[in-house]
What we know:
The protein is an all-alpha fold. It is built from twelve helices and three strands, in the order E-H-H-H-H-E-H-H-H-E-H-H-H-H-H.
Amino acid sequence: MLAANQTMVTEFVLLGLSETWVIQLFFFVFFLLLYIATVFSNTLIFSAIFRDDRLSDSPMFFLLGHLAFLDLCLSSFAIPRSLLDFLAQHQTISFQGCMAQIFFLHVFVGSEMLLLVAMAIDRYVAISHPLRYASLMSRPRCMALLLASWAGGLLHGTVQLGFIINVPFCGPNKVDSFFCDLPLVIKLACIDTNPLEVMMVTNSGILSLVSFLGLLISYGFILYTIRSRGPSEGSTKAVSTCTSHLIVVTMYFGPCLFIYLRPSAHFMIDKVLSVFYTCVTPLLNPTAYALKNKEIKAAIRSLSAKLSGQVSTQGRPHH
């Protein structure tokens, strides 16, 4: 294979979500509002958790704070650039920029999948083994789960980049999306892409499927444990929480499974699904996991009070 710096293609053209200027303008406003809401909500949750020692010392909130940080990363790898592209007539990205998008997308997506599994394990231990929870989910073990999530995501992104970085591109360079993703870029290679697609399915598709099954099994055990203890106000609340988590998880994993388990086919719905798991889900996660939680709400109120107090103090004239 040719090395990356020997390729004839030096840039890719991102076709975006529409060729119509009015629709592009609509997407600009939509993505801008979506991104602002995502950054605001996740920054608020991250700050509220890690400015409160009681919350940051809790395994559940410790992992939740890092989920908010990952959602910030996932929403930022492509949206800021795409906002400029929606207003531009000629949407291009360099070869190196395209490879960087592929790498960081898979690092963040892979890390988030594994972190969601870690959070499900945490909830299972808390509900099924409450007396041993503190020892089973100690800070060193929480750190190990977090580091394993990031290491798994980094390995996943490196392997995905390795599939494509040395592949020769010598002809078409139009990517039918608003960011570079492996299934779309692979199709532009000047070689037989079937072996690459098989490797991609093995890597991305299997990671998504195994993580999703792991989550379903964890939440299945949680719901079984709750039901076996009989009805109560706490169990009803726990079931409601698990249900909302499962809905968001399905919306996150569903598009990934659909896109990466059948790379040889490409449908228009793929664009909508790519928007969901890179842009919409990072905004839904705070709602499902954090903003319904009374401790998070209290921490946010406390943070808001501190910030407003600092602003009012700074705004007073000094005598």
